[in-house]
Structure formats: C-alpha cells, structure tokens
Specification:
The protein is of the alpha/beta class. It has two domains: about 110 residues, Rossmann fold, CATH 3.40.50; about 110 residues, Rossmann fold (3-Layer(aba) Sandwich). It is about 50% helix and about 10% strand. The protein contains ten helices and seven strands. The strands form two sheets. The chain has a four-stranded parallel sheet with strand order 5-4-6-7, with helices on both faces. Strands 2-1-3 form a three-stranded parallel sheet, with helices on both faces. Helix 1 links the parallel strand 1 and strand 2. The longest helix is centred in the first third of the chain and has 19 residues. It is globular. About 45% of the residues are buried. Belongs to the aspartate/glutamate racemases family. Keywords: Isomerase. This is Aspartate/glutamate racemase family protein. One of its GO terms (molecular function) is amino-acid racemase activity. It holds the Pfam family Asp_Glu_race.
C-alpha cells in the first residue's frame, strides 16, 4: 500500500471527510482492521485565506509547495491537495516535489466521462467558479461548464466562507443551493459538480433529483484506490 500525502486544513471541516473516506475505502477493499497509510499536514487556513483575499497566489504556492516537500521527506508516495480552490497553485506544488499530484479536476473529469455527462454545472468558491485554472481544465477535457449568475456566485461563496468553513450547516442555505443547482440543470447541465470540498457537508444527493458530483468523495476515494494500486 502506498502512503498518501494530504495537504489539509482548507478547511479542516472537509479534511475530516477526506480522512474518513480514505480509510473507509481501504477497509472495504482489504477488510479486517486495515486502514490507510497516510501523512496529513494541516495548514492554518487563516494564512491561506489571507493570501487568497489579497491575491498573493505566489505566496500561497510557496506555502503549499513547502508542505508537499515536507510530505515527500516524510515518506509520502503522492500528494493530495484537500481543496478545489488551492489547485490554482497546483503547478507550484508540483515544482516543489517529485511526487505525483492527484489533481482533483482531472479525477472529477474522469468521473464525468464515465457517467456520460457532457455539460456540467460548477459550484465552488468564487475563485473556482470565475477563474480559468479549474474551468479550463474541464473544458480542455471536453466538457461544457456552466456556472451560476453573479448573484448566485456571491451567495455560494458566502455560504462556503461564512458558514461551512466555520462548521455552520444551515437548512436555509441548503434550500438556496438546491435552487441554484436546479437552475443549472434547467440551463442544460447533466449534473452539478460540488466543486468546493465543504459543499458535500451541506447538499446531499437526496436533496435534489439533479446528479451531484461531490469532489471530496471523488478525490478521497480515488486517492485510496491509487494507494491500493487500483486506480
């Protein structure tokens, strides 16, 4: 079994989910008392978010590249950035380590392709929804990517940073996000990507008839399969 290097803490609310899913998959595959071999470096999200807000992505990239190098020295066999937004600095992370990076957008694209989806809605932070680092990766893979209108993008971003990252799960926010998901479906999306690792804490498949692609579940499961040489 390979050792998974996790860059977590962005936020720690969803990093908990990563750890649980990775270990559940390993237990399902190997049985008994098996659990995953993994190293977790949990950053101080306050520092990362300050870089995001100020637009200092170079500093954020250096920060995460340093973490990746530490994971490599600790014996990790791959790197997993446990957040969608910080894949904006994926190139910097890759430059800081010889380890393979399991890119969340690439693994999500593989899931979309397997599901036969060609047009997909994307929810996430405003960085993920509005900037090309994530959307272009999906578009280059052949998908039409739909994002909410400006007012709904603001709402989704606020729910993420002002509620979910602080451990607040609101029924009113769940209803609002389901409405946004259904708008994307009405515009032609064959499914909707929960493109922030906290969104799965709020919206579940049973909340809507629209097919959801939870990037936290996809990323964590595929990391576990990679460690087991099944992916």
């Amino acid at each position: 079994m390979k050792t998974i290097g996790l860059i977590g803490g962005m936020s720690w609310e969803s990093t908990v989910t990563y750890y649980r899913i990775i270990n559940e998959v390993v237990r399902e595959r190997l049985g008994g008392l098996h659990s995953a071999r993994c190293l977790l470096y949990s950053v101080d999200f306050h520092e990362v978010e300050a870089c995001q807000r100020s637009g200092d992505w170079d500093a954020a990239g250096r920060m995460l590249a340093d973490v990746a190098a530490r994971l490599e020295r600790g014996g990790a066999d791959c790197v997993v950035i446990c957040t969608n937004t910080m894949h904006k600095v994926a190139d910097a992370v890759c430059a800081g380590t010889r380890l393979p990076l399991l890119h969340i957008a690439d693994l999500t694209a593989e899931e979309l392709r397997a599901a036969g989806v060609s047009a997909v809605g994307l929810l996430g932070t405003r960085y993920t929804m509005e900037e090309p680092f994530y959307r272009s990766r999906l578009e280059d893979a052949g998908f039409d990517v739909l994002v909410p209108d400006e007012a709904d993008r603001v709402l989704v971003n606020d729910v993420i940073f002002k509620e979910l990252c602080l451990g607040v799960v609101s029924d009113a926010s769940r209803r609002a996000l389901v409405e946004i998901i259904e708008k994307l479906s009405a515009r032609g999306a064959g499914g909707v990507i929960l493109g922030c690792t906290e969104l799965g804490l709020l919206v579940r498949p049973e909340d809507t008839s629209v097919r959801l692609f939870d990037t936290t579940e996809i990323h964590a499961r595929r990391a576990a399969l990679y460690a087991l040489a099944e992916a």
